[in-house]
Design goal:
By secondary structure, the chain is mainly β. It is built from one helix and 38 strands. The chain has two domains: 48 residues, no CATH class; 424 residues, YVTN repeat-like/Quinoprotein amine dehydrogenase (Methylamine Dehydrogenase, Chain H, 7 Propeller), CATH 2.130.10.10. The longest helix is centred in the N-terminal third of the chain and has 21 residues.
């Protein structure tokens, strides 16, 4: 028989054991301590990781490291991603480039297409894997596995990029995507092919007529997303956004109309991506103002004009007045389960006269909070262009088609950073930013420089060997 004091001591010891188990455990299962007649359960107590930092508003993009990659010949940077361990992965065309002290892993006889693993501070190249003559896209799964694609097909690499877990040859792959479940999708012309984690084909189908620009895998919903546009008449292009099952059954469609009475602006779907917040993001283009395009309407009902909560404007750089027929950009956040539009915004530049001017979105994603990260190329000029800084260095001169990076708050009401990269005393025209990535506080941008120069703080290589050249910039989100 236990005394009253012994009962109290037993309860205290059990409670201490349960709390200690909860504090040191990582599984989402009940924490239980048991002895004699007593059981104490602390259900579902989880030790949380430190949350990633949020971006703040600044005129200075605080790049930690930026370098050129390549050798003699035309090198390009096509895509970038951040691995779960914080390392960077860069993909593109590098026909004659092998870094010092690196022995490449070759997956095909052609070796112009390369993917590089780079240390999280940008100061060391860790590995090079070569696949075909060019790589066009990449994506990294939560387990670190790396999906790459290009003219040689598609391949899933181990997290250290040393081994191909599987590879396939559906044709020359324009774009590819990887879900959190390691399901992969390849876009070849108008054909989508979906692969299981083993590389087995799960489904393959045609998107039909039109121009097909991108694909994404929304694994939480079991949806393959595709976007592009169709020439619906001799003088009108309309976008589509579609969700398919992994086997190719059409689950939902948005926009994708055969006509748009009184909405005559050519409109295209350009890019899709699943953000770190799990939402679907689409980037589009409009030849003219948003009000004359289908992006001003509900994607499920052309008769419904978007209100101010779903088409958000804050100033003249996202309210496309006085634009004429220039090509501006638009992006939206969607529910991947059914293609419902949650929020959207236009994006344009302004001439010194105040007239609207062109900008293109070539890459889009979002961080864990839903802050939107965008990269592309732009005409004159982004807001306050000439006072922008990269790593404390004021940017150089403007030239048409210069690269830019943009972060917009999760509610789409604040631009945190909007910056070009031209080096002082020069410019960087016709040099697209093709890739952007963010994961748990690390961000990166991939640019192909074709003329001029770019700012390179703490570089591995401060200047290009030859143009065109691949450029990678890395920075902590802050």
């Amino acid at each position: 028989m236990l005394t009253l004091r012994q009962h109290y001591l037993a309860l205290i010891l059990l409670l201490s054991a349960a709390v200690l188990a909860a504090a040191t455990g990582v599984a989402r299962t009940p924490v239980v301590a048991q002895a004699s007649r007593y059981t104490i359960s602390l259900p579902y107590i989880v030790r949380a990781e430190n949350p990633p930092p949020q971006p703040t508003t600044s005129n200075n993009l605080q790049v930690g490291s930026a370098s050129f990659f390549g050798a003699a010949g035309a090198d390009t940077a096509e895509a970038v991603d951040v691995a779960p361990d914080g390392t960077l992965v860069l993909a593109g065309s590098f026909p004659n480039y092998v870094p010092t002290a690196i022995t490449p892993t070759d997956l095909t006889p052609d070796t112009g297409g390369s993917v590089f693993r780079i240390s999280n501070d940008g100061t060391q190249i860790l590995a090079q894997t070569r696949f075909g003559t060019t790589l066009t896209d990449l994506e990294i799964a939560p387990n670190g596995n790396i999906l790459i694609c290009g003219d040689a097909g598609i391949a899933l690499l181990s997290a250290d990029a040393s081994t191909a877990l599987w590879q396939a040859t559906p044709g020359s792959v324009n774009r590819c995507a990887l879900g959190n479940d390691s399901s992969a999708a390849a876009l070849v012309g108008n054909q989508i092919t979906v692969y299981a984690i083993t590389g087995a084909v799960v489904g393959s189908w045609s998107l039909g007529t039109g121009t097909h620009n991108d694909v994404a895998v929304a694994s939480a919903e079991g949806i393959i997303v595709a976007t592009g546009f169709r020439q619906v008449s001799s003088n009108l292009q309309l976008p589509y956004l579609r969700g398919y099952s992994y086997a190719g059954e059409l689950v939902w469609t948005s926009y994708d109309w055969d006509a748009a009475p009184n909405l005559g602006a050519d409109t295209r779907g350009e890019r899709v991506a699943i953000g770190r917040d799990g939402k679907l993001y689409m980037a589009g283009s409009i030849n003219g103002g948003t009000g004359g395009s289908v992006f001003s309407r509900d994607p499920k009902d052309l008769s419904v004009r978007l209100d101010r909560e779903r088409l958000i404007t804050t100033d003249t750089y996202n309210n496309p007045t006085n634009v004429g027929s220039v090509k501006i950009a638009w992006f939206g956040r969607f529910d991947a389960a059914d293609g419902t539009l949650l929020q959207s915004q236009s994006l344009l530049t302004r001439l010194s006269s105040g007239r609207g001017n062109s900008i293109s979105i070539l890459a889009i994603t979002a961080d864990e909070y839903g802050n939107v990260f965008i990269a592309g190329s732009t005409a004159a000029s982004i807001q306050n262009r000439d006072t922008r800084q990269v790593a404390g260095i004021t940017v150089g001169n403007y030239a048409g088609g210069e690269p830019y990076f943009l972060v917009i708050s999760s509610n789409l009401r604040q631009r945190h950073i909007w910056s070009p990269f031209a080096a002082p005393g020069g410019s960087a025209g016709n040099s697209p930013a093709n890739g952007v990535a963010v994961r748990r506080g690390t961000a990166a941008i991939a640019i192909t420089l074709t003329q001029g120069g770019l700012i390179t703080p703490a570089p591995l290589a401060p200047t290009p060997t030859e143009l065109s050249a691949a450029y990678l910039a890395i920075w902590p989100v802050q």
